[in-house]
Sequence to fold (730 residues):
Amino acid sequence: MKSFRLLALAAVSALALLRPALAADAIEAKVDALLAQMTLEEKVGQLTMASNEKTLDWQAMETGGIGSVLNFATPESVASLLQRAHSRLGIPLLVALDVIHGYRTIFPVPLADAASFDPAVTFRSAELSAREARASGIGLTFAPMSDLAHDPRWGRIVEGSGEDPVLASAFTAARVKGFKAGGLATTVKHFAGYGAVDGGRDYDSIDISEAELRDRYLPTYRAGIDAGADSVMTAYVALGGVPATANRHLLKDILRGEWGFDRAIMSDLHSIQEMVSHGTAADGADAAVKAFLAGVDIDMDAGLYQHHLADAVKTGKVPLDLIDQATRRVLLLKAGLGLFDQAPLDPAVAELKLNTPETRTAARELARQTFVLLKNDNHTLPIPDAVRTIAVVGSLADSQPDHLGPDAGIAHDDETVTLLKALKARAGDRYNIVYAPGCDRHCADADGITAAVTAASGADYVVLAIGEARDMAGEGGSRADLAPPGHQAELIDAIARLGKPTAAVLYTGRAMALEAVAPKLGAILLAWYPGSEGGNALTDVLFGDVVPSGKLPVTFPRVTGQVPIVYNHLPTGRPADPTDRYTSKYVDIGIGPLYPFGWGLSYTEFAYSEPKLISDKLAPEDRLTVRISVRNTGTRQGAEVVQLYTHQRVAERSRPVRELKAFQKVMLAPGEEKSVELSVPAEGLAYWNAAGEHVLEPGTFDYWVGGNSGATLGGHFTVTAGSRLVARAK
Ligand code: BGC
Fold:
């Protein structure tokens, strides 16, 4: 955490360098002067964002009718766009893009970053991504995605930071700061609750209690806003039947009212138009008025503000004053980025700043910290020195796009180091590689399995690449079956029958259901989608140069039928008891997940002392502080993530069975012991009650400290004195 703080300080000073020369009041004055000269149509132009599609209205682009764009991605396309775009008053165009986990150099996907349990990892990846993008003329990224994920069937789980509000908040904040340090303005998205879609089906609806929304889903967005996010994007979904894009309660009461967010709010792509399909707007004109009056400043590519907002002002449906306020927010965003003073973009100069030795080295170092060792029977990993022939099986091992993952910016596939390429590069005369794909990226047919078995039978070690091709993850990538896709189970089975030591490398952007295949594999190393240097980073860990230290930011179910299954669920009146049928569980599978939240092995082992509380009685203004010693009892240097969980025994609204409250990653040499202090303000134990109050109630809490959410060491403490009202809903 300390290193994170230092990075955050560095971020602040880097940001100062990137700030425009104009002081805050000079910016305000400039914006006011512009506003005074703008026509209504020019103002509406600033509220219009257009995508780089065939249908783009170039006439509007050349006459100030479009204020911002998306999907102009390469420096060349941005440069030619900027030459063509024109506004009478010299208002610059804002160029926005989904810079999610890299621009030209691709870093691990955000969910992988969360597995590092070290926000400095994601800060650095965001900073370097932003630097590349900003040098290429991009001003704003549509990131970080701050949606807490509830169901791994939802493909967009890959873009966020998992299922825990405390972990995901820390990562959201670090990403905002990192992007800003690299020079990009940021967008917290998708406000709000997108990660709770029914059945994990993308774009489906949500209907959860206000208290649950506030306890579980809202803290991550708030963390991004408190970290300095420049804009907020609404979600496609409807909550309780009200689309987020015209949801006054979310946008006006909570975002603007309670949180005081005074920057720009934008719709998602076409989400204003989609209000018609939602059945809450009669037509485009109606949708435009409703979204605008609910607080959406910018229409992303639906063209509805462009076509209807000026008329709505003229007919008195929309007050001009609100148009002025929204335009002001957009102009302030542009001025804050320094766009009014930006030098012309030279793509040749930009190119020199992309895919540099610095970004490549960082991509490799950061990826190594995100891998999670799910199992490792009989020390299958690291690959022993004595191994002479390695069979690499599985076409994902040599698939460049599947190392990059979804949302891979303007990456060049051929700049991506795959696992196979890295293993070959390292082999020298130390070992031989035989490669057999077994089946294609989706493992759609089983024809190659026999050849793979033949290849592997001559080897003394098998590295088996399994998991999901990248098109199975990301937006629109919901899956109904979380088991390895296609014929992979057959491939795994056939290889396992050879009885060779077998380490699986698992590519995925979500939690998968591995119960059927895990027992057949000696080791499983979760690679996620590891980015441009993924193969090198994996090889570093497979051979033991680097010890894996990632932990799961999501619960891995046994089978798909168990989802949603999150570790921080609410209690039931009948907790699962294997001896009692009438308790909460399934009759056809074991109790609990396959791998719990926070889980991850190492090549070394750690022993924990009994934890000690600084005080077991807390007043509301105190802090909960736990001290524990962790010792590396193995023979390798390694990092452990020490995690603190709590549970309030009795409350007005029942509290989750466990909640992560603090975590810290510590590096330990063999035999080394360190004392770790985990601390959280007592207010961090508060929750939202049904009356719309955020309260810290007195009472007894259990706590646990350890290396995953199943930690057993711990005790209890009490919060004394009267309850404290931390906040109240509007
Ligand atoms: C996604 C957003 C994204 C936007 C622009 C939408 O479909 O939901 O997350 O930022 O497209 O690419």
